[in-house]
Amino acid sequence: MRFDDIALDAPTTVGSHHFTEAAILDFARRYDPQPFHLDRDAAAASHFGGLVASGWHTAAAWMRVTVDYVKAMGTLAGISPGLDEIRWTRPVRPGDTVTYVNTWRAKRRLKSRPGWAIVENEAVGTNQDGAVVFTMRGPVLVPIED
């Protein structure tokens, strides 16, 4: 990708993920075994009032659709050196479908690594009702051509 072709402030829908109860339970068993992710009764008695997906599940779904999108576009995926911020603003429940949008917010060439740039990404996940359920900001190292 050419550095000049990296468009800033142009939202790109990268995909959607449907959260089933079975998938929520499976993810929770393997990665985030908290009662409100694993047990319907315990979840109903919690402040969530019912079963909810792990925040990490919503983040993993974002990563999955982003990687699939990048592969489908035939571009190289970048490398993330970490996150600046991540927020889970609303619970994701069984039956919800979350659509993820990525937006490049800033870019700069790396003087120390010719052929590479850091691009600041903002990701937003919105459920089927239009409510934001997930936001994330973080840098991505991407190979560039000059």
Our Rg estimate from Cα atoms comes to: 17 Å
Approximately how much beta-strand content do the residues carry? 25-35%
Determine the N-to-C terminus distance: 9 Å
Backbone shape: elongated
The tally of helices reads 4
User: How would a crystallographer describe the biggest sheet?
Assistant: 5 strands, antiparallel
- Reading the helices and strands in chain order gives EHHHHEEEE
The overall number of domains is: 1
CATH homologous superfamily heading? Hotdog Thioesterase
Ranges where pLDDT stays below 50 over 5 or more residues in a row are none
Task: Report the mean per-residue pLDDT as an integer.
Answer: 94
- What is the level 1 CATH name? Alpha Beta
Q: If strands are numbered along the chain, what order do they take across the biggest sheet?
A: 1-3-4-5-2
Task: Give the tally of β-strands.
Answer: 5
CATH names the topology as Thiol Ester Dehydrase, Chain A
SS-derived structural category: alpha+beta
| Shape-level CATH architecture | Roll
Domain MaoC-like: 14-108
Pfam families: MaoC_dehydratas
Protein name: Acyl dehydratase
